[in-house]
Deoxyribodipyrimidine photo-lyase
Amino acid sequence: GPSLVWFRDDLRLADNPALTAALERGRPIVAVYVLDEESPGIRPLGGAARWWLHGSLTSLADSLERLGGRLTLRRGPAEDAIRELAASVGADAVFWNRRYGQAEREVDTRIKSSLTAGGILARSFAGSLLFEPWTIQTGQGGTYSVFTPFWRACTAGPPPRAPFATPESFPGFSGPIASDQLERWELLPTRPDWAAGLRETWQPGEESAHRRLTTFLHESLARYGTERDEPAQTVTSRLSPHLRWGEISPFQIWHATEQARIGLTGTAQASATRFLTEVGWREFSYHVLFNSPRIATVNLRPEFDAFPWPKLDERVLEAWQHGRTGIALVDAGMRELWRTGSMHNRVRMVTASFLIKNLLIDWRLGEQWFWDTLVDADAASNPFGWQWVAGSGADAAPYFRVFNPELQAKKFDPHAVYIRQNVPEYGTDAYPAPIVDLGETRRAALAAYEQIKGMK
Ligand code: FAD
């Protein structure tokens, strides 16, 4: 019978271990994506992520069709969808690349046992992480909660495997297969269509991901180490949404960067190391997610459960969400996010710190807003980043380190280029006065922190 390849967070043909295994098996292949919003514990996708998914599936389907195949779409609890599809086409093998969230792993485990019980071969592969969480252990066999020793342990071993070749043909299954229509999933916003800025900024899909990587390596890698913190520069790779959906793999990024490094010296060479270290932070986020599955809702440091958050003022939260706080760098970041579905890393830290430590709003509300609005919204990196800023997370910034958004702007956007790009009325009467006093609110936050300090 045919092999079934179940695409999930790996919407690519190149360097796809599950697809490679199916090709090696030499039977016709049924490629499927399942939109699963029903299995227990699966976090519903945010709006920007749904927009991205639509584009990415369109692109994957096109690529498969160019090779003579097609992409089958199913909706519903994955367990039912996969079992039903395997039965209807008479598949005797199902291949996929692994996921690392708890709910997703539970779904996959159940499917694996039910397929196996039915006499169908079920195999999973490592496609999305260079170092799967359980393979990296401390000397005592424990898990890491600090990045530097984690990354040292990762890079001490053999280098990540080389990427698998891009398939040149695709032995599509010729029988009839029922498929949903992508348009029917209504992943794109309609009333209103808020995605114009996303369309201008991004092109989902595997080809576009590789163009970005190539451009980045040629034009920016050498400057990455020195300019990566300046939001007005377009020096970072902007690969995060492509990585989130697996349109490009970390193996491909790793090896292409190592290749590019050969031509570099001095600070430019150090830039390449720095870039791969950032890719390492993504690996670390997944290590933490795997070991603390409730990272999006539960403080990793339990003393933060007692943090005295004041009663929420919705208008203040909305001012932050829509970039109307009167603090220019914060507003610039929040408007960039709303318009483009993304925000520079330095500004993510500043806007998050402002929400938590100047507006005294629970980090979980910020995490949810980012989850809904980021095209790269990621189940590991997003809550990890928020808990890092809050001080409640793994290897986090200490709570008492409060970013001053005005000093951050002076340092990283000295000519207000980024601010003006995003806040056109900056410097005019139309721009609002600050909704809070930075010094006063900082003192209030530190006093609140004093109450939980030392608790465990
Ligand atoms: P580059 O600087 O080019 O880095 C290359 C890749 O490394 C990125 O694409 C990303 O996959 C990874 N990476 C870089 N920095 C980090 C980091 N600090 N943590 C984890 N991975 C990193 N990143 C997401 O991918 N999804 C999120 O939902 C997300 N939410 C965040 C929330 C907060 C509050 C903070 C402070 C950070 C968050 N990040 C998130 C991390 C980081 O801001 C983005 O990965 C980065 O801005 C993406 O831009 P880039 O691709 O140009 O990064």
Q: What stands out?
A: The pocket of flavin-adenine dinucleotide is lined by residues 228, 236-240, 243-244, 278-279, 281-282, 285, 345, 348-349, 352, 370, 374, 376-378, 381-382, 385-386, 389 (CB under 6 Å). The radius of gyration is 23 Å. The chain is about 50% helix and 5% strand.
